[in-house]
Design a protein that fits this description.
This protein is mainly α. It has one domain (about 30-270). It contains eleven helices and no strands. Helix 8 packs across helix 9.
Length: about 280
């Protein structure tokens, strides 16, 4: 038997994979995020489908009087159950559309876990709180609202969530942090990216949509969540992963809800004292 030639030996020897491929494979993320591999037509159709489902769900909820029915029969979960139902519908729709487009989870930022995502997520939390505080200050200056009006507007919203049990706060925060990031920073952001030539436009538009859908928190809440959305969308685009955003989102919501419960009585006391003061 003739010994193999040098060329045959080289072809039989396993060749190492390029380093760039190994890194990309380990991260499981597209080189450019948000992913823009979809055609504009497919991206637009995907957005229309999700928007239609969201509008249909909200219409069905309010037209049937479902929140009122919940409040009467299940007062402890009346505030949070619609959020769980909405999240389940949205994540189901996103999963179906991503599968239909033959995309991988990494295409919308659901990358493999890495411990650096935890550090980035923790650093994102104070940035979001500072951004929210600045937006509140600008809102108060622009609208020229008094401190009493400012506290009253926040108390109206926070009063509805201040009675949520502690265990439900963390459960709700984790769930909302996951599904809203998948929906807005994963799905909506990548579809808008396919419709645009740049990243800044999709980041801003997705954040405005995110803030607008928090209309139940009042105009100030819309402004605040829009700024938070800008921070989270920027983190998603820079890190090419949703993990830091989901961690930050869950921590922001849980902290805010816990503080709402702790501060609710103080806010009500402040409003009572302000109302008892003579005018002028």
């Amino acid at each position: 038997m003739m010994p193999p030639s040098a060329s045959e030996s080289e072809s039989q020897t396993p060749q190492p994979l390029p380093v760039t491929y190994m890194v990309a494979r380990a991260i499981d993320a597209p080189k450019v995020f948000p992913d823009s591999t979809l055609t504009r037509g497919d991206a637009l159709r995907d957005l229309c489908i999700v928007v239609f489902l969201a509008i249909a769900f909200m219409t069905a909820i309010f037209e049937t009087g479902f929140p009122h029915w919940l409040a009467q029969r299940f007062p402890d979960i009346a505030v949070i159950l619609p959020a769980f139902l909405n999240g389940a519908i949205c994540m189901g729709a996103v999963a179906a559309l991503v599968r239909h487009r033959r995309q991988r989870a990494g295409s919308i930022g659901l990358t493999n876990w890495h411990w650096r995502w935890l550090g980035i997520g923790l650093l994102t939390v104070p940035v979001c709180f500072v951004g929210g505080a600045i937006s509140n200050l600008i809102y108060a200056l622009v609208t020229q609202r008094s401190l009493v009006d400012f506290v009253k507007e926040r108390e109206e919203f926070l009063g509805g969530v201040s009675d949520i049990p502690l265990w439900l706060i963390f459960t709700l925060s984790i769930f909302v942090g996951i599904y809203e990031e998948i929906l807005f920073r994963g799905f909506v952001l990548t579809r808008l990216r396919a419709l645009s030539k740049g990243v800044i436009g999709p980041v801003v538009i997705s954040s405005v949509i995110f803030g607008s859908l928090h209309f139940t928190q009042g105009l100030m809440g819309v402004c605040q969540t829009t700024i938070v959305g800008l921070v989270l969308a920027t983190v998603a685009a820079r890190s090419r992963s949703l993990w830091p955003c989901m961690i930050a989102h869950a921590l922001i919501d849980s902290t805010s809800l816990v503080l709402a419960g702790l501060m609710s009585e103080e806010m009500q006391q402040f409003l009572r004292e302000a109302a008892s003061q003579p005018a002028g």
